[in-house]
C-alpha cells in the first residue's frame, strides 16, 4: 500500500513536471521542435530522449555563459537567450523532464562519412559514452544515440578549436576537448556517421 501511494505521488509530480515543461518549451521554440526532433535549417539539434541530468547541465551552462559565450560560437549564442528565458532552477528541471519524454524522429545521415571507419575510431568514445551511445552519468558522458551527424561533427570541431570546453567552469567539457583533438576532420565525419547508426 505504501508503494502504491508512492507511485501515485510520483505520477502526480511527474505529470506536473512534464506539463510545466511543455508550456515552457512551447514558449521557447518555434514549433519546429515540437517533438524534439531538431531542425538542421535552424541549427537545432535533436534533443528528444536525452538524459535529464545532461539537459539540466547544458541549460544551466547556457544560462551562466559557460556555453554560448565564445566569440565563434554562432549557434550557441542563439541558444543562450533561450535558456536565459528559464527564470529558475525549477523551470530548467521542468523543461529537461519534459524533453526527456519526447520521441522525435531520428535524422538520416547528411555528411557522407565512413561509418565503418567511424566505428573503429569510436572505440575511444565507447569507454565513456557506451557501446551503443547510451551515455553514462557516472562518467558525465551524455547519450549520443539519436543525435544528427552534422551536430556531432560541429560539436567535435568546437571542442577541437576551443569554442567549447575552454571555459574555466566547463569542467566536463575540458575532459572532452583532448579526446576531440585526436580526430582529424575526416575522422570527425566518420565518427559522426557511425553515431547516426546507433540506437536511440
Element layout with pairings:
Blueprint lengths: L1 H27 L23 H13 L9 H11 L4 H11 L15 H15 L19 H13 L9 H10 L4 H12 L4
Number of domains: 2
- State the CATH class of the largest domain: Mainly Alpha
CATH T-level fold name of the largest domain: Cytochrome Bc1 Complex, Chain D, domain 2
Broad structural category: mainly alpha
Helix content: 55-70%
Q: Which runs of at least 5 residues are low in confidence (pLDDT < 50)?
A: 1-10
Give the count of helical stretches. Answer: 8
Radius of gyration, in angstroms, nearest whole number: 17 Å
In whole angstroms, the N-to-C terminal distance is 35 Å
Summed over residues and divided by their number, the pLDDT gives a mean of: 86
Oligomer: single chain
The percentage of residues in β strands lies in: under 5%
Number of DSSP E strands: 0
CATH architecture of the largest domain: Orthogonal Bundle
Largest sheet entry: none
Order of helices and strands: HHHHHHHH
User: Rough shape?
Assistant: globular
CATH fourth-tier homologous superfamily of the largest domain: Cytochrome c-like domain
Task: Explain what the structure shows.
The structure is a single chain. With 200 residues, this protein is an all-alpha fold. The protein folds into two domains: 1-29 and 36-105, Cytochrome c-like domain (Cytochrome Bc1 Complex, Chain D, domain 2, Orthogonal Bundle), CATH 1.10.760; 107-200, Cytochrome Bc1 Complex, Chain D, domain 2. Helix content is 56%, strand content 0%. It has eight helices and no strands. The chain starts with a helix and ends with a helix.
